Amino acid sequence: MKAPRRGTMKRISSALVVLFFTSAALPKENPRITIQVVGTQTSERRYTNTTPGPVITSQTTCSANRNSSGTGPTVDPASTTLCTTTSQTGAPPVTLVSSMKEEHVRAIMPDGTHVTLWCQTGFHRCDSLRPGNYSAEVKGNTVWMYPHDLSGKEHKIRYKAMRGDW
After folding, report:
1. Which of 57-71, 115-129, 149-163 ranks highest by mean pLDDT?
2. 55-100 pLDDT tens trace
3. Fewest CB atoms within 10 A around its CB: which of 16, 117, 128, 145?
4. Helix %, strand %, coil % for the chain, to 5?
5. What are phi and psi of 18, to 5 degrees?
């Protein structure tokens, strides 16, 4: 039996390196599980943001009345200075009250653990889920639920899982 040629070994090692990096670059999906949704409660989180009004400013401009005599200008101690001050009043601060919709989904994990799945609109898509079974992926405290709309299209919604006391 002949030993493989040097070029053949290089090609095999190159192919293995490419295969290794290709498999490492593929996204790793978490296995899907089925989560039972028992109910959903919608709430509204209110928050305020206050922007201060413009600062009060004042500007003073002065001019002196000078008397001169002799070879150069000199200021007479009896001369007068005229100053004018202009003031701008500030506006009051502006307070805006806003709100964000939150969803609190009560669910049962496959091992029987009760959890509350929390989602807040404004940062990403958030839906109220009806009771039933849903396909999901779990990574740490993050749960991606996969509900279907009326046309059958699947949507991916991210929730934060918290232990439920319900």
Report:
1. 149-163
2. 677 788 888 765 555 555 555 566 677 888 887 767 888 898 988 8
3. 16
4. 10, 50, 40
5. -60, -45
Phi-psi region of 149 (alpha: psi -120 to 50; beta: other; left: phi over 0): beta
User: H/E/C letters for each residue in 8-71?
Assistant: HHHHHHHHHHHHHHHHHHCCCCCCCEEEEEEEEEEEEEEEEEEECCCCCEEEEEEEECCCCECC
Please enumerate in sequence order all residues whose Cβ is within 8 A of that of 51, keeping only pairs 6 or more positions apart, or say none: 93, 94, 95, 96
Query: Token pair for residue 139?
Result: 């990574």
Question: Environment class of residue 101 by beta-carbon count within 10 Å: exposed (0-12), middle (13-18) or buried (19+)?
Answer: middle
pTM of the model: 0.55
For residue 7, the surrounding DSSP H or E stretch is: helix 6-25
CA distance 80 to 63: 9
